[in-house]
Amino acid sequence: MLQTTVIALFMGFWASLYLLDAFLKTHQGFSRSYINFLSRTGLSVSIAQLRWYTPYFNRLFVRIGSWKTHFLKVWFTCGVCFGLVAMLVSVFLLSLMVYNTLCQKPIEQQILTPVMPGVNLPSNQIGYYLLTLFTCGVLHEAGHAVAAVREQVRVNGFGVFIFILYPGAFVDLYTEHLQVISPLRQLRIYCAGVWHNFVIVVVAIFYLLCLPWFLLPFYSVGSGVIVTSVLENSAVSGPRGLSNGDCITNVGQCRVNHVNDWIRCISSSMVAPSDGYCMALDLIQQQDVSLPSYTTPAGNVECCGNTSNTHLCFFYHSKLSASLNHACLPARTITDRPPCHLQSDCRIPGGDAVCVMPSLDNSTKLLRILHHDKPPLLFLGHPLDLHYSLTLSNYWPKALIIPLDLPYVLETFCKYLISLSGALAILNVVPCYALDGQWILLSFLELSLRSTVPNPETRGLIYTCLLLMGTILLSLNIFIAMWMLFMR
After folding, report:
1. Do 225 and 258 meet the contact criterion of CB atoms below 8 Å apart?
2. Which family does it belong to (predicted)?
């Protein structure tokens, strides 16, 4: 229902914007001033798209493209090598995807996965996704512009756009200049965009690996994980649950120093039985408030009824009885006792002690979460529910003015840069209509076949066939990806 409402709002917004634009352009009283406004600002409206175009950045591109021209020549030549190798790799991977699908072989991970907000992209990640697309698009087109200036091709202007929800950028090059330069110089321009996407991936990986050292003056690490957000209406939210800024140090007996430790502790708690606790028999008899017990459909014994929020049914072995004993005991009092896994772990001088274990089904666990300066949190449920209810960070701010979630924001943005910029680099080099790969293929064929295939019509036929094959290949992969996303 929410997705339908959001789609309806977007459709209504773009329809209203388009109709307003058409009305202002045709109205006798507003058309002249409105068209002048669009001309001055560089704005334009089309179906589901808003554009902004300006020559304002041309001087910046000229200044960068004229700086250390020999270095830039080597830089963009490296981009040509990367672009040609990436084209072969992308064609191979996409062909492998189609082959495995036709042969009905199991595919562990898709090569091409469409990202759809509200479908496979969480709503709280949309901001990162859109910002990454905009950043990658601007730097991609800036690469084309700087390479064009380096190769003596005039840049007419630069622009950005929003298509439905997705942002992007474009650069306007002088076509006549572009057509008369050599194929190698054309390749430097056409490959510059995907080359910059690859550089973004390398820089983001380096920054992500060095992030702990960059943040070391402002954050401390290694003494627990910090809660940066808690899922609303989850089992650990509320006044008695966890809150932003809490530092988790233990999950039961499992020590948590880093987020990787947290994941390891949650994983081990799913397969290991819940911790037991040592308690004297006389205390059990004093605190036991058992009701008539019964066996649940899951196979565990329930002796506290369904109304108790503070007590839990435990079982234990006793020397006085050969059968299994059950007792309804206060959960918080019991979990404050020394932990145990076997009867032999409990030794109390001058009295009999037993190891009491929670009576739960296989998927439900009783976890005791330790966090600084607060009473332990008792979680009863599936460990994955606990895991997905929290967003955690390794970084504890050294001062109150330092943002708690800044490391998470930087880390998440770097991960999006790596995944999306890498995907754009591989996708754009596919020899397909309307992608950079179309022009890269054309320039490469002119460069490599001009001497061996002197007939321009023959070279054009080879180009058309390869371009058609690449377009079909990419279309098949998009169809397969959409099918697996919506029909699985």
Report:
1. yes
2. Belongs to the peptidase M50A family.
Q: How far is CA 280 from the centre of its chain?
A: 50
From residue 454, alpha-carbon distances to 115, 448, 457 in Å are 44, 11, 9
Cα distance between residue 239 and residue 102, in whole Å: 54
**Residue-range domain boundaries for the chain:** 2-36, 58-213+411-487, 221-399
Q: What is the DSSP string of 133-186?
A: HHHHHHHHHHHHHHHHHHTT--EEEEEEEEETTEEEEEEEE-HHHHHHS-HHHH
Which residues are catalytically annotated? Answer: 141
Predicted local confidence at residue 284, as pLDDT: 87
* Distance, CA of 441 to CA of 449 (rounded, Å): 11
What distance in Å separates the CA atoms of residue 414 and residue 406, rounded to the nearest whole number?
12
Answer whether 358's CB lies under 8 Å from 303's CB: no
What's the pTM value of the predicted model, to 2 decimals? 0.79
Nearest to 79 by CA among 162, 19, 10, 140: 140
pLDDT number for residue 1: 47
Cα separation of 332 and 5, whole Å?
A: 45
Residue that is written with structure tokens 């209509």 in the block: 433
- pLDDT tens per residue across span 235-256: 888 888 888 888 899 998 899 9
Which parts of the chain register pLDDT below 50?
A: 1
